[in-house]
Amino acid sequence: MSAMCAGLVVGITGLTGCSSEEDPDAGTNGIGKLSAAKIQSKSRAAADAAPAVRLSGTLVSKGHTYKLDMRLKEDGGTGSVTSKGETFQLLRVGKQLFLKADSAFWTHKDAKGGEKPGKADGEAAAKLDGKYVKVPEEDAAYQQLSGFTDKDVLLAGMLTLHGKLATGDRGTTAGSPSIEITGDEGAGGTLDVSLKGKPYPLRLERAGDAGMVRLGDWGRDFTLSEPGKDEMVDYGEQLPES
Question: How many CB atoms neighbour CB 194 within 10 A?
Fold first, then answer.
C-alpha cells in the first residue's frame, strides 16, 4: 500500500483520507474570511436588527465616567447607571422614563461637602427612597437619562471604529469564538465579533480610552412594564433636585 498519507490507521479496515491544513473558518459563520471593513459592517447590521441586547461596562463622555448595566430593546430599557459614586436605576417604557435611587442620591450635596440639606429636604428624600420618580419629558435631565435606555442611540455611538481598519487575533469572548478588528492598530478602538451564529459585536474597547463595554444576550427578550402606583412618585413637569 503506497504511503500517500502520513500513516495507517491501525485496526480499521481501509485507509483514511489524506488530511490538509485545518480550515480556521470551518464551523464558523465565515466572517473571518472577510475584510475588517466588511466585518464591521456586518456586525453593525446584526446589532441593528437584533430585537434586544444587554450592555455592560464603562463609558467616558465629556470627562465623566459612567458604569452601565442595561438591558435594551426597541421600545425601552432597564438597568443601572453609576456616576460619581452614585448608583441609580433607570426604566423606560415607550416615552415614559422613570428613575429610582436611595435617599442619599437626592441629598448628595451633604456627602460632597456642600450645603447640608435641611430637615424638610431630608424628609422629602426619605419619601423618595427606593421609589421610581417619573422624569418629565420637559425636564433637562430627560434627554441625557433617556439616552442610556435607547438601544439605537447607544449602539450608534459605539460600533464604529476610527482610522485604518485591520483584522486582529482570533480568540474567545464571553465563551464564544471571536475575531478582533481594530482601528488604527487599536488607537481607534477594538471590537471583538462573534464567529458563531450571527456576527454580533461582543466586546468593545472605545477609542481614546473612552471605556470598555460588553454586549450579550442578543435577541433575548425581556418584559418592560411601568411601575405600579405604589412604587412611583410623579412630580409633574419638573424632576426634584438631586
Answer: 24
The x, y and z cell numbers of residue 129, run together, are: 427612597
Rounded average pLDDT over 152-158: 88
CA distance 221 to 218: 9
Q: Cα Rg for the chain, rounded, in angstroms? A: 25
| Beta strand segments in the chain, E | 52-61, 64-73, 76-83, 86-93, 96-101, 131-135, 165-173, 176-183, 190-194, 201-205, 212-216, 232-234
Length of the chain (residues)? 242
From CA 147, how far away is CA 152, in angstroms rounded? 9
Nearest to 183 by CA among 201, 170, 169, 165: 165
8 Å CB contact between 138 and 156: no
**Taking every pair of C-alpha atoms in the chain, what is the biggest distance, in angstroms?**
96
Instruction: List, for residues 160-219, the tens digit of each pLDDT value.
Output: 899 999 999 999 999 999 999 999 999 999 999 999 999 999 999 999 889 999 999 999
Q: Which three cell numbers stand for residue 56?
A: 455592560
**Residues 134-143: tens digit of each pLDDT:** 999 988 889 9
Q: Write down the H helix ranges in the chain.
A: 36-49, 103-106, 108-111, 119-128, 140-147, 151-156
Q: How confident is the model at residue 61 (pLDDT cuts 50, 70, 90)?
A: confident
End-to-end CA distance of the chain: 85
Backbone angles phi, psi at 207, to 5 degrees: -65, 150
pLDDT greater than 80 at residue 234: no
Residues 136, 240: Cα–Cα separation, whole Å: 10
Q: In this predicted structure, what is the pLDDT of residue 63?
A: 86
